[in-house]
Design a protein that fits this description.
Elements: E1 3-4, H1 10-15, E2 21-26, H2 31-46, E3 52-57, H3 62-67, E4 75-80, E5 83-89, H4 94-104
Parallel strand pairs: 1-3, 2-3
Antiparallel strand pairs: 2-4, 4-5
């Protein structure tokens, strides 16, 4: 299951992680976000021991979204060593996201 990321745990889960991290920025009302959600959950299971897959609800955590300039959702950010290294905006395939995560391993 994807990790719920908030202001209180963002630093610990994303910035201080020794594993690659993929964060899905989404909102409950966003249709494309709901389309992407099953892939995010599947990737969380597929990469359970190799990477962290998390979700940030932009309605609950607008400061995180603003910090990374999130203007459209879904947006997926990829971090390695606490640094933002890749980004994808919009719906895509599970394979495309897995490829981005695999490239960070």
């Amino acid at each position: 299951m994807a990790v719920i990321v908030s202001e209180s745990n963002f630093e610990e889960i994303v910035i201080n992680s020794d594993k690659p991290v993929m964060i899905d920025f989404w909102a409950e009302w966003c249709g494309p976000c709901r389309m992407l959600a099953p892939y995010v959950e599947q990737l969380a299971a597929d990469f359970e021991d190799k990477a962290i897959v998390g979700k940030v609800d932009i309605e609950q955590c607008p400061d995180i979204a603003n910090r990374y300039g999130i203007r459209n959702i879904p947006t997926l950010l990829f971090f390695k060593g606490g640094e933002l290294v890749d980004k994808h905006v919009g719906v895509t395939t599970k394979a495309a996201l897995a490829g981005k995560l695999n490239a960070l391993l």
